[in-house]
Amino acid sequence: PIIYTEPPTTHNLNNDGSTSTVQMQAVDPEGTAITYGIAYANSTNARPDQLAANTTINQTTGTYTFTPSASNSEEGSFKARLSATDGITSATRFVDFNLLFSISASYLIVAGGGSGGVGNTGGGGGAGGLLYASGHSFETNVSHTITVGAGGGAKSGNGAGSSGQNSSIGSIIAIGGGAGGGNGAAPLVGGSGGGGPDGVAGAAGIAGQGNAGGLGDYTAPTNGTGYGGSGGGAGGVGGPGSDQASEGGVGLEYSITGTAAYYAGGGGGGGYNNTGRPAGNGGGGAGGNRYGGAVSATANTGGGGGGDGLTSGAGGSGIVVIRAPRAATSTTGGPTVTTAGSDTVYTFLSSGTITF
Q: Which of 56, 118, 237, 306 has the CA that lies 20 to 30 A from 73?
């Protein structure tokens, strides 16, 4: 027999107990009728535990119908040999079947960073909250909602900046970075807290997601000194304005995409006459001074924006990365799809969904 409709090499069974089909069609050159069959790759050819009923075969169309178990305890895989015979010789194909109720994957969620504050010694923006886990269980055949938070917008005039927006995978939420404080306005709590202005303490970060911003230090302008506190980062607190060597809180480094990179660094505090403080490693923006020069954070790092006396730096947008041992069945939102070793990596720079 000659097979002219090839079955797939792998097939994922529905985990809700509903049936699914695989087709293999063959023809005999001499016109002899074809009989289709199935055998399982075990010592007794017993029906695998992953099937709740015997496989049925439509002998006219070569369609195999599989009824999977709906019990989580039967999760697993098996190999089957599909055959087409004319009574003398056979043609065969092997298919790997999978019954999966969940998939173990790693994720990195970084929220949008806060923007810096404005006014003489504006505080640096806090980095977006960062969450990382390996071996997280994702339910299969379910659409998981991905949200990528925007960074806080740049601020002009006087006052606190804008906090970043949350990023999430379903109910797992990284909190947006807190805004840096400015003249007459305190910094805001966030994934990492914003830096304080003019002698004001930095805001707190969210436990497990980031760190606090630094204390602002403003001396009488006759001596030309004064710095806003720098924003907190995922890996460290923001530096205080009293320390001219201080900088935004450092981010954290991960290799989930296959390449090591830092994420969620805090923004640098603004200076009065002096150059503002440097940003923390992880996409944060450096601070400016009362004449301008603040730097916006790098997009899709969750970094905090720099503080300033004129116009502060914007916070960086967030990012969501999922690294899985097998490919998703569908995605929306246009994630970048790459490989790292034997894993498939999905990098979301905007909101969407993923289904395994």
A: 56
